Amino acid sequence: MIAITGASGQLGRLVIQQLLRSIPASGIVALARKPESVRDLGVQARPFDYERPGTLAAALAGVDKLLLISSSEVGRRTPQHKAVIDAARAAGVKLVAYTSLLHAPQSPLGLAPEHVETEAHLKASGLPFVLLRNGWYTENYTASIPSALAHGAFLGSAGAGRIASAARADYAAAAAAVLLREDQAGKTYELAGDIPYTLTDLAAEIARQSGKPVAYQDLPEAEFKAVLVGAGLPEGLAALLADSDAGAAKGALLDEGRQLSRLLGRATTPMADSVAAFLKG
User: Fold this and answer.
1) Over 56-95, what HEC string results?
2) Do 102 and 157 lie in a common domain?
3) What SS3 class is residue 113?
4) Would you indicate the residue range of the signal peptide (predicted)?
5) Does residue 32 sit within a domain?
6) For the whole prediction, is pTM greater than 0.85?
7) What is the pLDDT of residue 166?
8) Could you give the number of structural domains in the chain?
9) I need a labelling partner for 177 at 20 to 30 A (CA). Which of 12, 38, 156, 226 fits?
């Protein structure tokens, strides 16, 4: 029995869809705060709220492998993840796979500390575990295409930093592959796209495919954050995005080990393909 936390999220749904290609629906449990939101997937759905630790172990009854998808609530992740790990231990889960961050222990990103703390709690728990240190999702950038087309500029703070992103579906397929394999306990995967690019490259690709002028405009981190806030993003999210771009300039989003494509048994989705998919809608 394989269970997925955050099953109603974009990554969680994709992982379940991947698993369904290999195992019956009866062998999958979708864990979500609102289980009705995942009933369309056709698998078992159980209520699972990180903020209600006392309920979590019962929801994991009968689960052999658990994919702990990192919470979207930055700043609350460590206690939420600890609650899930403790519940998994109490429920007798045999393997926990955790979606961490690329090179988490060395990463300069503001997102890194909560991942490092979660990894440490996993190690201290005594549970068998595997770390899926995910790099950047290309969708984090393609979401800015409408603004780039409207203003003729793709804004960021990444300088000439090379980014080895991959499509969200690639990371989902890798997670499913690990969950379906045996002997994964103790492994750490640094997962990233095969072909790194700069934001200048990305802007040029958007221009090429759209037929409209788009150039990369590099901004200081504080100025980029201010632009994001001005565009309506919450202060905390704007700060994280600007920090991540600044980290990219330092190589935080680069890995050339190609562990992701080896797990997939195929090349990762090229940035150009993700741009094309977004433009097609």
Assistant:
1) HHHHCCCCCEEEECCCCCCCCHHHHHHHHHHHHHHHCCCE
2) no
3) helix
4) none
5) yes
6) yes
7) 98
8) 2
9) 38
